[in-house]
Structures are given as C-alpha cells and as structure tokens.
Amino acid sequence: MENNPFIKKWRKGLRKIALVYPNAYASGVANIGLQYIYAYLNSLENCICERFYLDIHNCLRSFESGTPLSDFDIALFSLQFEEDYFNVVKILKESGFKGLKIAGGPCAMINPKPIAKYFDAFVIGEVENSRVLDVIAEARSVEDLECEGVWLKEGKVKRIYPKRLDFYLRRQIIADNVFGRCLILEIGRGCIRRCRFCVVRQIYSPPRWRDLKLLIDTAEDYKGVVDKICLVAPSTLDHPRAKELIARLIEMGFLVSPSSTRADKLDEETVELLVKGGLRSLTIAPEVGSDKLRDILNKGLSEEHILNAVEIGKEKGINSFKLYFMIGLPNESFEDVKEIVRLVEKIKSLKVEVSVSINPFVPKPHTPLQWCSYTGIERVEDGLKEIKRRREYLIKELSKICEVNVESVERFAIQTILSRGDEDVSKLLEAKPSLRLAKKMNLTRYLEKIPLDSELPWDFIDHGYKKERLIKEFIQAVWSE
Ligand code: SF4
Fold first, then answer.
1. Is the CB of residue 195 below 6 angstroms from any atom belonging to ligand 1?
2. Can you tell me the distance from the alpha carbon of 19 to that of 73, in angstroms, rounded to the nearest whole number?
3. Cβ pair 108, 81 in contact under 8 A
4. What atom of ligand 1 comes closest to residue 199's alpha carbon?
C-alpha cells in the first residue's frame, strides 16, 4: 500500500514512458532519484510515466495500470547493479519492446559498454535541473536524444549533475521499502572521504549536502504520515550538521535511522542520539582486518576507532553489530585474512552480538584500484584458487564465533567482468552466467591486472578527475610497500 502515489489518467496522445527497475519493488521505491524522475515526467502535460518492477508482473506490465511494457513509447531503465543486466536482457526479450531504450543509474555512469548493445542511449549523471528529461519526453528517434549528459554510444561524454542540492521532492511515495515504511531524506550526494576502492566518491563528486532547513521543512510535511525517517547519503554522519538534524527530527517525533555509519563518527553524543532515534544495531565497515591494509585502502579508520565505536555503542545500549569486510585486495596476504578473524574475536570479547558479511573485492572502474586484478593476485587461475581458500578459512573460523556470510568468489568474478568489460561482454548476458562460460568466451581476461598505459573501456566518460591522479594514488597504494 502506497501513500502519495501519483496516478495520472491516461488519455490519447500522451507520450508513454516506462520507468523500469529490473529488481525488487522494495529497493526500487526506496530510490529517491527514480521517484524524482517519475514525478517530473508525470508533471509534464504531454507525458505519462508508469513504473515497472521485477517482482510485480516480472517487469512486463506496469505497476499502476497493468499496461504491457510493449505499449510504451520509451523505456527508461535504471541500472543499479551489474547483476541486473541479466534481468534487463530477459525483460527486453520477453516484452518485445520496440520503442526507444534508454538506461541510466550508477552502472551506466561507471561503464555501460557491456550492456550497450541493448540500448539506444545512456544518461550519464544526475538528471535533476538538467534538460535531459524534457529531451527524453519529446524524443521520437535516437537523434532527438542528443543533449548534454546523454551518450549515444559513440564519442566522449561528460557527466552532468546539479551543482547544488537546493531542491527536494515534495510528494514522496511512502511505501514498505528496504529501509522499512519511512520517509527517505536524501541529505547529500558524493563523499568527502577518499577510500581508494570506492566508486561512489568518483561518480558523485563533488560532495554536496542539503541544507538543514530544507530537510526539516520536508520532514515537516510528513508529520502524522510516517513514524520513521531514513537519512540517506554515502556517508550520512559526515553531513556538517548531522547531529543537529537528527536531534531536530527526534524532537519532531520521528524515529531516525541513518543508511550508513562510519566508526570514527560514532562518538558518545551521536550514538546516544541514534539510540534515542530508535537505532538498535550498528553497522560498521572495517573493510579489512589490519590497519596496514586499511591504509592501502585509504579508509581513514583505525582499529582503535572501530573498537571505540563498539564500546560506545554497547555502553549506550546497542548490543548487535554488523561488520563488513572484503577479501582479495592488492597486497593482501593470508596473514591479513587471519587479521579479520582476530579483529572479530576482539570485538566479540566486548560481549556483543556480531554478524559478519564478507565480499570478494571488485576493482571498480574510475577508482585508483581499477588496474588491480580480481583477487589481488597476478595470475587469474592462481588468484581464484587462493581466494577460495581464504573464503573457506574465514567461513570455518568465523562460524565458530558468530554469524557469517562470505559471498561467492564466482559471483563476484562475474560482477567484475560486467563492471570492467567492453562490448564483447554482452554475449555473456543471454546465457546462464558462469565463470566456466566466461572463460570459454575469453572474458576472464577482464579479471586480470590492467597495464597502467592501457586504454580503458570507460575512458570515454569524463567524471571530472584526472587519470594521472588515479595513477599516482594507485602507485602510492600498491607499489609503495
Ligand atoms: S566513506 Fe564510504 S562512501 Fe565515502 S569514500 Fe569511503 S567507502 Fe566511499
């Protein structure tokens, strides 16, 4: 059941735009950027926009009126996760959609080449305050889509973004989303930190925060509509007025939950506020077990910060901690992997509940670690073998002391291929994905270390950084040992 659904009446002559989220409703409806696009397109006189979700009619008929996707003139796909590419290909095939196919979202901004074959154009950036949506709404052919921030599959493109976040969606759809039933308050974009593995800081730069008054005014409109507010940003507690904002929202009677927390921002006052706001468990991302590897990642977090945060949390009444780690990083040794177990043991010794989630590291485009091999080991076969050994070790040791989930090495290898590949990767998308098939198709070469002077499939996107800076950081991180 949705509050505030924007249902526009059908009439003859309207341009029909399908907003397709090739994944579950609960995560799609939580995406405030998509809500903005939906509201904006429906506000245009000559246009109707309806939503499509994978778990509602398999994305083949619309959420609002059940209209088949094939009846729409334009399909706008949101690419949030590389693994959704398989769903995209299936949806396009099964729907028989013949209109204009456009994609946007973080995967399009990172590297759209592997999925390029299936679309006419890609939106590279954030569309608010740009001409892109008006251009899309008027477009009758691919040529009509020519505009700043749209990549028509040749040449270079510069990312677009609003310089200031001085606007906010006034009629948000409230639904049961991945954060629960809540108002989503996007407090900022981009990140002031410089973690070397993180693509968010690169593709959403520069960091931009919403003004406290705008956020409070927006929340005011939802008093009596929702009990809870989820604060969304890549690093929520870095908002210059985060504490004041949380305190004000609590005073207004809301429960408050941040979408992310950094251990070094969890001081006594902040944790006390978060507990008052209803937080019962804390998520911390140490990323790795040792300070040495954390320095390579430029995480800006020490073991002391992590242990401090747990101690403060416990003192303020939080007893459950979720920890995120990665394996397969450059320069990682088996001893470093053992350090993860040691750190978790140390946290457990503080007598708190711990659950651990570990992902193999994906060297993402546009980051200083983009040239690294998947697994961090030079020869792909050796790397895959070794990282599987590390994974098994972690499952065996950590499951003795806490709940643990270590993601599949194969699954993340495929993700790396989809993230770093070129157009030839598209042939993998119509099959059932497996590493064996990727190998047969000669695609496992995208798991290899990349020479620093290579031209990269995603070099055509200008995100505003200088490649020389990334190279410098890569050298500092990986070769400075
Ligand atoms: S703090 Fe989080 S969002 Fe910011 S750069 Fe580091 S990993 Fe990325």
1. yes
2. 11
3. no
4. 8
Domains of the chain, CATH where assigned:
15-158 (3.40.50), 261-405 (3.80.30.20)
392: part of which helix (H) or strand (E)? helix 380-398
Question: Residue 35: what residue type?
Answer: Q
3-state secondary structure of 309: helix
Is the pTM higher than 0.90? The answer reads yes
pLDDT, tens digit (0-9, with 9 covering 90-100), for 429-470: 998 889 999 999 999 999 999 999 999 999 999 999 999 999
Cβ–ligand 1 distance for 189 under 6 Å, the answer no
d(CA 54, CA 78): 12
The ligand 1 atom at the shortest distance from the C-alpha of residue 192 is 4
Residue 50 CA to residue 435 CA, distance in Å, equals: 36
Instruction: For 50-66, write each residue's pLDDT tens digit.
Output: 999 999 999 999 999 99
Q: Which atom of ligand 1 is nearest to the CA of 260?
A: 2
Phi, psi of 170 (to 5 degrees): -85, -25
Tokens 């204009």 belong to which residue?
A: 100
Cβ of 200 less than 6 Å from ligand 1: yes
Pair type for strands 228-232 and 461-462: unpaired
Strand partners, 283: 322
Residues 64, 70, 73, CA angle at the centre, nearest 5°?
85
Cα-Cα-Cα-Cα dihedral of 453, 458, 463, 467, to 10°? -10
> Residue 33 to residues 28, 449, 468: CA-CA distances in angstroms?
10, 34, 31
